[in-house]
Design goal:
The protein has 143 residues and is an alpha/beta fold. It contains 5 helices and 7 strands. It has helices spanning 3-24, 75-81, 98-107, 109-112, 114-117, and strands spanning 31-32, 49-51, 55-60, 84-88, 96-97, 123-128, 136-142. The protein has a 5-stranded mixed beta sheet. A two-stranded antiparallel ribbon has the order 2-5. A hairpin with a 7-residue loop joins strand 6 and strand 7 (136-142).
Length: 143
Amino acid sequence: MSYEENKKVDEEDFDKLNNEIRLQFPDAPFTISLSVIDKYEDLHKLDEPFTDEEFIFICDDRIDKHNYYYSEWPEEELNDLQDFIVIERESIEKPITLRQIINEMIKSEHYTDEDISGDFHNFLVDFYRKDEDSMEYYADFES
């Protein structure tokens, strides 16, 4: 397959993936562009176990003076914007999945807040922990 043909296949798969994500999460106040789901065939990863923990906290990594969008905001207002959501296992047999996390984020008042949704770092690309033993995960957003 030539480079041009391969590129066209990649673009078609990318478009197909993005369309499907928009169909599955139509009310998302952010763009879902997870690094672990970079092909249409990877959509099954939304329903695979993300963690076996009973509950986790999801924090927004954007609310910081180092983020240009918030650099001029008064500290008190930034503190008010800081928030986390709790994600709990539905049952012992059902671990927390990416789909569950994303759906909880979509329902959260934090992510639908006008100030938060106006941040141009609006592409959800990953989740990470600052500390391996922590139950705090950070939603990693990029522009």
